[in-house]
């Protein structure tokens, strides 16, 4: 039975998106044209990446229909930070299945003893003794977590910086953190969980290890089975890098060497490779937009409730990639290495398309 909270005019893509005109999408066609003309959309160039010659793509949809695309909608590339959105989903499924409570101590499920590289990292030691799932996943949208992990980039940590200075005006080493200069050693909770919030891919690496232990499976397989297969993204059309694969690439971003030197073992738990919770989902803009549409429809797809919407979070990555969706106008965006258009996070109530351009519902 169709979810009555979703308007009748909202559809769902089958094998591919159906393209409609701005007028059919309920937009002021001339105003939409002027908005497009005011943008300078092109391939991004984060960290020395080369995204010239159509090696980028962005898709925008409304009501389950494609309304515009730039670059190559099917171009696949790894998307920095968007793995965090899938970690939210994985924790949500585990909670819905009764595997764990979000406010339980992580150490009840996994301590890392004998697997993590140093005893001070064990999740039943130090500040980790009060560390919960909710602390690591974050209390708010955008990836800010409250687990007390104090940095973002390993190479910046060596320079007495968090790695967030450029984008968020975050100062150097937080006053609550201990700095040794070795990001590998310093990957642990430096303060009481829940007391400070900081965007931290380092913290999400520890979460992805814990999620792998919790599920007892390759978490990519869980996403395939419980999420992507439901919304039309086949397993051979996306990938999720492992932490070990990222760590072994000194020039993962060509001009930012040793960015993720903090990635520590275990890289495999109970025979399952640990996927990179901080990010690096390899996917196309066209398929990311499907996830964005699921966010817009509050977790419903063709009459089936996939997941409670509180566990759906889009995300934008440092290499100008991301996914978002909103439920006011039912717009969604999938972005792969694209510069020139702002990506709006998943929990936004407004569309990335200017509000005055909407004239009514989709009319197809």
Task: Write a structural description.
A hairpin with a 5-residue loop joins strand 14 and strand 15. The protein has 9 helices and 16 strands. Helices cover 21% and strands 14% of the residues. The longest helix has 15 residues, at 201-215. The protein has 364 residues and is an alpha+beta fold. A 5-stranded antiparallel beta sheet has the order 3-2-15-14-13. The mean pLDDT is 93. It folds into 2 domains: 29-76 and 282-357, no CATH class; 83-278, no CATH class. Helix 2 packs parallel to helix 6 (201-215) and helix 2 (83-96) crosses helix 7 (219-226).
Summarize the structure.
With 364 residues, the chain is of the alpha+beta class. The protein has helices at residues 29-37, 83-96, 133-137, 154-158, 165-168, 201-215, 219-226, 243-247, 285-296; strands at residues 42-43, 57-62, 65-71, 76-79, 144-145, 198-199, 239-240, 268-269, 272-273, 281-284, 300-301, 304-305, 315-316, 322-325, 331-336, 338-339.
Task: Provide tags for this entry.
364 residues; alpha+beta; 2 domains; 16 strands
Biggest sheet: strand arrangement: 3-2-15-14-13
Compute the average pLDDT.
93
- Number of separate structural domains: 2
What would you report as the Rg, rounded to the nearest angstrom? 20 Å
Number of strands: 16
- The count of helical stretches stands at 9
Query: How would you describe the shape?
Result: globular
Strand content: 5-15%
Termini separation? 22 Å
**Percent helix range:** 10-25%
SSE run? HEEEEHHEHHEHHEHEEEHEEEEEE
- Helix-strand category: alpha+beta
Poorly predicted runs of 5 or more residues: none
Largest sheet: 5 strands, antiparallel
């Amino acid at each position: 039975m169709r979810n009555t909270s979703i308007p009748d005019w909202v559809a769902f893509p089958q094998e591919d998106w159906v393209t409609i005109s701005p007028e059919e999408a309920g937009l002021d066609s001339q105003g939409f044209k002027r908005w497009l003309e005011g943008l300078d959309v092109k391939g991004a160039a984060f960290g020395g990446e080369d995204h010239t010659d159509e090696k980028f793509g962005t898709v925008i949809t409304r009501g389950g229909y494609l309304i515009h695309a730039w670059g190559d909608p099917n171009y696949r590339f790894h998307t920095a930070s968007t793995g965090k959105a899938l970690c939210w989903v994985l924790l949500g499924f585990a909670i819905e299945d009764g595997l764990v409570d979000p406010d339980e101590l992580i150490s009840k499920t996994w301590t890392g003893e004998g697997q993590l590289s140093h005893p001070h990292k064990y999740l039943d030691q130090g500040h980790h003794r009060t560390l919960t799932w909710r602390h690591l996943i974050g209390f708010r949208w955008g990836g800010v977590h409250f687990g007390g992990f104090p940095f973002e980039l390993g190479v910046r940590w060596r320079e007495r910086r968090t790695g967030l200075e450029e984008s968020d005006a975050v100062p150097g080493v937080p006053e609550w953190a201990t700095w040794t200069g070795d990001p590998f050693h310093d990957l642990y909770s430096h303060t009481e969980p829940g007391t400070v919030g900081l965007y931290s891919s380092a913290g999400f690496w520890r979460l992805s290890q814990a999620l792998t232990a919790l599920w007892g499976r390759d978490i990519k397989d869980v996403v395939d089975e419980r999420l992507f297969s439901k919304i039309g993204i086949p397993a051979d059309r996306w990938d999720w890098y492992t932490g070990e694969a990222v760590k072994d690439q000194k020039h993962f971003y060509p001009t930012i060497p040793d960015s993720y030197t903090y990635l520590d073992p275990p890289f495999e738990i109970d025979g399952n490779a640990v996927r990179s919770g901080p990010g690096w989902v390899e996917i196309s803009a066209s398929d990311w937009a499907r996830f964005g549409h699921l966010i817009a429809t509050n977790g419903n797809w063709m009459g089936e409730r996939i997941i409670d919407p509180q566990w759906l979070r889009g995300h934008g990555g440092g290499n100008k990639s991301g996914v978002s969706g909103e439920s006011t106008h039912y717009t969604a965006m999938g972005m792969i290495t694209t510069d020139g258009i702002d990506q709006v996070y998943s929990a936004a109530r407004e569309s990335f398309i200017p509000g005055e351009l909407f004239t009514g519902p989709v009319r197809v």
